[in-house]
Records
---
Amino acid sequence: MEEVMGIVNFEGFLIAALFFIMTPGIDTLFVLNKSITGGFKAGRYASLGVNIGVLIHSLIAAFGVSLLVAQSEILLLAIKYVGGIYIIFLGIKKLIATSPLLSNISDTQVPTGKNTFISGLVTNSLNPKVALFILAFFPQFILPEALSNPIPMLILGFTYASIGILWYVSLSLFASQFATKIVENPKMAKAINTIAGITFVFLGLQIIYA
């Protein structure tokens, strides 16, 4: 596989990142919530806010992981196995999920652009699950000897956030009442969660046994 700037299988990262981003989760709920209640403008600000939060976590992880891994190879193995297990756990949660995808949407206030951006930024920046996901996922595409360098992690973080912005902005364009009814459909929710769950479990196993 081609290795550039300490990153391995960048094409695989792009595909996996796109799939993770497209799979409905808390960020999707947030963006759809703001888009439905505040229109496309609010959706754009929400998309930017949550993904700036991803960049913040990436920055912290880049320097945190580089310092820790530089001290011990055991931590490298720990990141690998804990990361794989965590992604498998996400997959199992998707497989057993029964609630509608947008069951948490209840906001009835029309959001402003600035408030929406700040809300998305704070929500993601303070979410430990985002930090855990980045620590579990990103290092799998970085060469072991490059984990002491923060640059590969920052590149992956910027790439992930860029894909996220493009996807969520596009999603907000279609966040109408019709779109809401589709994702609230139990059969649609079950199909999406099943496909996502199987994919997450498969990716987690690949990480563990790689």
---
Amino acid sequence: MNDTTAYILALNCGSSSLKFSLFGLETLKKHLTGIIRRIGQSESNFDIEVPGEGLVYSSNTSIDSIASAVRITMDWFKSNAQYPIIAIGHRIVQGGPCHRQPEIIDDFLLQTIKQFVYLAPNHLPDEIAAIRYCKTAIPDITQVACFDTGFHKDLPDYAAYYPLPVNYREEGLIRYGYHGLSYEYVLNRLITKDPDVKNKKIVIAHLGSGVSMTAVKGGQSIETTMGISPMGGLMMGTRPGDLDPGVPLFLLKKMRMPAAKVESLLNQQSGLKGIAGISDMEELIEKEELEPRAKEALTMFCYQARKAIGSLAAALNGLDMLVFTGGIGENAPVIRKRICKELKFLGIRLSKKSNSNSSKTISSAKSKVKVLVVKTDEEAMLAHHTRDLLQIKTSQKH
């Protein structure tokens, strides 16, 4: 088999979008990329393009759920038989303490993942539904789970554990960290260009609808902002980030909210949306001059990001490199500028011209800390891990 006879499909289910890419089995060359945006809204956008060549398919329709988006995607591939898919790699947000490394999906693993839906209710139900539909669409397909927590599996104990009675650790009450596939891709890119990056103290800021940062030292994650769930850490599109433990107690006891309503509030109605009624960063930037709540939301977002960078620099005992990635990190120069403006005490200074152009290096010549923008590619990591497991599976048969 080669790139023209066998392909790997990488499926990346978000909270309101579905991204996918098709890779050749042998070379992992990317042949197609696709995205379905605005899922659950009145009009969704479905685009597929060939890298470097442009769109090969585009439609606007109403898609009510991630599960429906997966079905539509798989139907498109079935109607385009020139792309025989032999394996699918899935980004899985959470697999619990015993499942951090990529694994071939079987019934036992699927049942295990289901047990942790309560930790990632915005993601896991859709990811499980996607796995099941793909199995129905292509019954003999090999499916691989790549866990977003894997990058942080070697956090030191003092960073991984909460200051709670130790018996709770055995129940899985630990800090997992997330966005691991994005961090893994970004770090690999940096090391490929400069192997000495392994010796650098780095903060990687993944800023998108979900937001987190991680501190990397010796090529490993030593601290990260998200904890047991993707709700923790920094303010996000619809999630609040870290809260005083008294906040949910206030909602439960004072406001007499049912637990399910608290969960919905914290996952879907907080963050940027909670402050301004809008979760889209581009729209908030456009409206901030006229709408005080939009301005408040952006101010709070950048403030929390600065605090996190300072905290992670302390965990690293210094800072050599700051890397922005994710949809906001890659495409919002004004947000990068506002975050870095008050970080001169760390030696961070941006080049106005480079930052405006979203160049790869956006720090000025006077900056003691190198500041970069690196476009992430979680789907590339999904394909890489899927191919590795396929090769192991094939070798075991022989």
